[in-house]
Specification:
This protein has helices at about 1-20, 130-135, 140-145, and strands spanning about 40, 50-55, 55-60, 65-70, 75-80, 85-95, 100-115, 120-130, 150. Strand 7 and strand 8 (about 120-130) form a beta hairpin. It has 3 helices and 9 strands. By secondary structure, it is an alpha+beta fold. An 8-stranded antiparallel barrel has the order 1-2-3-4-6-7-8-9. The termini are far apart.
Length: about 160
């Protein structure tokens, strides 16, 4: 009986040591902060910019699918959370324009600030690369760089 108890204690201790070892846990910068996760619509441009933040990805759509900026096609250079600010730097971002034109040499920096937990965010997007120079992107570029406020859409029940 003592051997069984000692063996169980040794297993629990080993599991605790593994759980506390930083080398066995995924780095925190691989994930979005919990307060940012959700689907949001902008409140300043009439909802033409939608933001979806998941645990491991971020997606920005302008005018439906006219412009689609997604971390799925990108390299995440860094993802740092300091207090209520999350800064994500992406490189080699493929940005699709209405599925007819793809810009694949973009660097995108997203700065997301928590305004009200899980209800409202302020985000600015800075794009460098061929998309930034494209005339069709200019109409939203300045608004994105200056920052937009996003809210989770209110659900209506009938």
């Amino acid at each position: 009986m003592k051997k069984v108890c000692f063996s169980l204690l040794a297993i629990v201790l080993a599991l605790f040591m593994v759980a506390c070892d930083n080398s066995t846990t995924p780095p925190a910068d691989d994930f979005a902060p919990s307060w940012a996760i959700g689907t949001y619509n902008d409140t300043e441009l009439g909802g033409i910019v939608n933001l979806t933040v998941e645990e491991d990805s971020i997606n920005v759509k302008v005018l439906g699918d006219l412009i689609n900026i997604s971390s799925a096609s990108a390299t995440v250079e860094s993802s740092d959370v300091t207090g209520d600010r999350w800064i994500v730097e992406l490189s080699n971002v493929d940005v699709a324009m209405s599925d007819t034109q793809v810009f694949n040499d973009n660097n995108v920096t997203l700065t997301v600030d928590k305004v009200i937990a899980n209800e409202e965010l302020k985000m600015s997007i800075v794009v460098e690369g061929s998309l930034a120079d494209f005339a069709g992107f200019q109409f939203v570029k300045e608004s994105l760089e200056n920052g937009l406020t996003f809210k989770i859409p209110e659900t209506t029940t009938n």
